[in-house]
Structure formats: structure tokens, C-alpha cells
Design brief:
By secondary structure, this protein is an all-alpha fold. It starts with a helix and ends in an 11-residue tail after the last helix. The longest helix has 16 residues. It has a two-stranded antiparallel ribbon with strand order 1-2. Helix 2 crosses helix 8. The chain folds into 2 domains: about 180 residues, Orthogonal Bundle (Cytochrome Bc1 Complex, Chain D, domain 2), CATH 1.10.760; about 140 residues, Cytochrome Bc1 Complex, Chain D, domain 2, CATH 1.10.760.10. It is globular. Bound molecules: heme C (2 copies). The site of one heme C (HEC) has 27 residues, from helix 3, helix 4, helix 5 and helix 8.
Length: about 350
């Protein structure tokens, strides 16, 4: 998304306003949402004022899929974060209202509850704040959260659900928190790789097992893409260019040391989320591996871990097969995450 420094600043100011609007004493439906976590996944941290309840998740799911959120009611969050594609999309850059193109590739929302910071900048701290970005971006919703609230207040179902979930009218407070609640349940940890780790030794074939061994033991991948979510949640430069069109984290921090560094993305569901990198510039996993084998381009911010290495054709195939085994079929077919407006 084409978001200048000013608009990051604006989001923070606006987020502060939304955050501090006075909560009405909550009298709604407080049935907790039972988040079932895969083995080895830590408990995500929920903001104090946004504990997970079923009513909040249900409302957020509707808003996530409802194009009423965009200026001309043509685009929803799901337009760029599509369940069947691991809550990413398959475009280099995704069009928003009027077909306008943003500046970055839409990332997956897989396990986004765990991300300590959002966006490729690795800077915005909460999902609640992040939601303001697509809403006001010209190339996304090109809209305004206060106006969305006005639209929702004309809809009796949203009014009812909003009172149930947060004890107040559907306004900015509710919109940001409800959508975040839905995003926090998008947990994926049932890929064939996970099944293997949890004891089903037949869930990976021999090629995938060899690839797994390369990934964990022979290559530097896990120095950045390690841990239960295949990311250390840091920001790094992986040597895509000598000159970057996108200033990366520096866009938010103004620090030279952050120039062209981007968040290390999760590799879960990576087989579904092509094209790759912040700008969608790499079309396939084969080419991603070619990039890493080449050692990348020189850039002052480039991590020392990005160095040339050799793989045979078979090894390269094995590594890619392993990455594809991180696709979680039950995640992309879970009816609880699907569009609630599509009643079969
Ligand atoms: C036009 C396409 C588009 C639409 C519509 C859209 N997004 Fe995104 N989304 C993106 C892009 C592109 C990024 C990466 C932007 C960046 O890093 O600067 C992104 C990033 C995100 C992130 C950060 C993920 C992470 O791990 O850092 C979240 C969360 C998110 N979007 C949620 C939403 C929600 C919620 C909505 C609806 C309110 C929405 N998006 C609508 C394209 C879109
Ligand atoms: C120094 C840290 C680092 C190491 C080591 C590293 N990566 Fe990455 N990786 C990144 C960063 C940062 C990005 C995102 C760059 C961008 O968006 O421009 C990335 C992006 C990717 C992507 C694209 C993800 C997406 O959603 O677009 C894949 C696939 C990937 N890496 C696989 C690997 C593999 C396989 C290895 C080992 C051969 C590896 N990486 C080693 C930091 C690293």
C-alpha cells in the first residue's frame, strides 16, 4: 500500500483516539470463544479490552467479508485475504476500490494473532490499529471508519450484534476490535508437517523428509524462519535488490539502519501464497530458492546469513516439497473461517 510516513503517523494518532474512546459498561453476550491451539503453540496475547468472545468473533467475521467497508462497497478484507489462498491472494499487487493498485503484496493472515508487529515494516503493534490502514488507503477501501460506523448503524442486524459483542453501537471502537477478534482465531497448525511432528511418521514422503532435513539442519533458513510459526518475528534484509523502491521499515521509523528491512514472514501455507516477497516480485518457490542459492544482491542492510550455497536438482526439489507440506488443508477449508454471507 502506498502509505507515506504521514499516514503511518495518522494511523497512530487515530488509533489512540479510537483506543481511548470511553467504553460503555459491557452488558452483552460474554460467552468466551474457546481457541483450540495446536500442540507446541503458545497462548497468544489478547488485549485487555478485547477478550475473545463468540459474539465478537462472529461480528468480526461478518465485517471482514462485508464490502460495505469500502467507499463504493466493492472490496472487502477478503478480496485480498482469501481463505482458499491461506488468507493472502495470488496477485503481485492487489487492486482496491476503482482497481487502484497498492504498493505491496498482500501477506497471509495465517497465525497473525502471534505477530508482535504488523505490516512489512514490522512496526504497528496491534491488529486493532492495523485495520485503520486498509480502510483509509486510497488503493484499498479509500474510506473512513467513522463513515463505516454510520453505514452499519443503518443495519438492525449489525446494531444488535454490536450491542451483544461490545455493549455499544457499531462504531470505530467496535469495528476495529471485532475484526481483530476474527483475525485472532485464524490459527493454522495442522499441515502434514505438523502431523509428522505430532507422531504420524507417514504424513511426509521421503522427498519431503529430506527437504525438512535440509531446511532445519543444513541451511540457514531457521535462523530467521525458525520456531512454531516459521518466523522469529524480526525484520531483516534478504538481499533482493541493490536499490529498493520500498524503504521498508525505515518508512515507519525514519532510521537509516531500517532501510530496506522487512518483516520475516511465516512460511506456513507458503505453497498457497505466491507470488512472494513484499512486492510480489518472485513468482514461484523455485525462484525463491534460486534467489537464496545465489546469495542475493549486495545491500548495506543485507543480513550476513544470506550467503550463496549449492543444492543439487534433487535437493532443491526436496526443499520445495517440504515447503509445500506446510500447507494446512483443514485451515483453508474450515467453515468457521469462511464467508458467512455464502449460505449453501
Ligand atoms: C487491496 C488489498 C487489501 C485489502 C482490501 C485489505 N488488505 Fe490487508 N494487506 C494488504 C497488503 C498489500 C498488506 C501489506 C501492507 C504493508 O505491509 O504495508 C496487508 C497487510 C495486512 C495485515 C498485516 C499482516 C502482517 O502479518 O503483517 C493485516 C492484519 C491485514 N492486512 C488485515 C486486513 C483487514 C482486516 C482488512 C479489511 C479491513 C484488509 N487487510 C484489507 C492488502 C489488502
Ligand atoms: C536473514 C534472514 C533470512 C534467512 C536466513 C532466510 N530468509 Fe526467507 N525471508 C526473509 C525475509 C526478510 C523475507 C521477506 C523479504 C521481503 O518481503 O522483501 C523472506 C521471505 C521468504 C519467502 C517468501 C515469503 C512470502 O510470504 O512472500 C520464502 C518462501 C522464504 N523467505 C524462504 C526461505 C528459505 C527456504 C530460506 C533458507 C534457504 C530462507 N528463507 C532464509 C528472511 C530470511
Amino acid at each position: 500500500m502506498k502509505m507515506g510516513i504521514n499516514s503511518v503517523g495518522m494511523v497512530l494518532v487515530f488509533a489512540a483516539l479510537v483506543a481511548f474512546s470511553i467504553p460503555v459498561k459491557y452488558k452483552g453476550n460474554i460467552e468466551a470463544y474457546e481457541l483450540t491451539l495446536p500442540a507446541g503453540f503458545p497462548q497468544p496475547i489478547f488485549p485487555e479490552d478485547n477478550a475473545l468472545t463468540q459474539a465478537r468473533v462472529d461480528l468480526g467475521r461478518m465485517l471482514f467479508y462485508d464490502p460495505v467497508m469500502s467507499l463504493d462497497s466493492s472490496v472487502s478484507c477478503a478480496s485480498c485475504h482469501n481463505q482458499s489462498l491461506g488468507f493472502a491472494d495470488n496477485k503481485m499487487i492487489s487492486p482496491g476500490v476503482n482497481g487502484e493498485l497498492a504498493a505491496r503484496n498482500a501477506p497471509t493472515l495465517t497465525n497473525v494473532a502471534y505477530n508482535p508487529t504488523l505490516l512489512f515494516d514490522g512496526f504497528l503493534p496491534t491488529l486493532e490499529m492495523q485495520i485503520l490502514v486498509p480502510i483509509q488507503e486510497h488503493a484499498e477501501f479509500n474510506f473512513n471508519i467513522v463513515e463505516i460506523g454510520k453505514r452499519l448503524k443503518k443495519n438492525p442486524d449489525y446494531i444488535k450484534r454490536s450491542w451483544e459483542a461490545y455493549g455499544r453501537q457499531p462504531d470505530s471502537y467496535v469495528i476495529t476490535r471485532a475484526i481483530s477478534s476474527f483475525e485472532r482465531i485464524l490459527i493454522s497448525g495442522d499441515s502434514r508437517y505438523d502431523q509428522f511432528v505430532n507422531g504420524d511418521k507417514n504424513s511426509l514422503n521421503r522427498s519431503e523428509k529430506r527437504g525438512m532435513n535440509l531446511f532445519f539442519n543444513d541451511l540457514a533458513c531457521t535462523s530467521c524462519h525458525g520456531g512454531f510459526n516459521f518466523t522469529d518475528f524480526s525484520t531483516k534484509n534478504n538481499g533482493l535488490y541493490t536499490i529498493y523502491a520500498d524503504s521498508g521499515r525505515m518508512r515507519a521509523t525514519h532510521l537509516l539502519e531500517d532501510k530496506a528491512v522487512f518483516k520475516v514472514p511465516t512460511l506456513r501455507n507458503i505453497g498457497l501464497t505466491a507470488p512472494y516477497m513484499h512486492d510480489g516480485s518472485i513468482a514461484t518457490l523455485e525462484e525463491v530458492i534460486d534467489h537464496y542459492m545465489s546469495g542475493g544482491k549486495n545491500h548495506p542492510s543485507k543480513s550476513e546469513l544470506i550467503k550463496p550455497f549449492d543444492l543439487t536438482r534433487r535437493q532443491k526439489g526436496d526443499l520445495i516439497a517440504f515447503l509445500r507440506s506446510l500447507t494446512d488443508e483443514s485451515f483453508i477449508s474450515n467453515p468457521a473461517f469462511a464467508n458467512p454471507f455464502n449460505k449453501e
